[in-house]
Amino acid sequence: MNFLNLTKEHLQQMIAYVDSQAPLESCGLLAGRGSQVEMIFEVTNQAQSPVRYVMDPIEQLHAFEEIEARGLDLLSIFHSHPTGPETVSPTDMAEASYDVVYIILSRRDAEWRARGFWIENGGYREVTLKVL
Question: What's the pTM value of the predicted model, to 2 decimals?
């Protein structure tokens, strides 16, 4: 996937969520069809850490069940890097296990920025996030 379409409201929802959880990392899922995001699922970071996230397995399972029930696909996994980096970390690369866009939200000068990445074969490339 070379790009992911999401609305301004989707982006604002992710930013509000990660900001409310800072200084801890936060995480969630984006579902939709093709390259168009339709739903966001905020998932509790079970690790409760400023430098690591582990999705709550029960919340993740419920999100997957709803995604399937609505006939959607998992398009993206998002998480925050409250203190950086703005790109994929070595841990992100080691733990990436889905063929989806990984969105990283990082804070710079009190502003949250979202960037998308495709992670595979021990590397990554940036994916354009089109905010409609």
Answer: 0.96
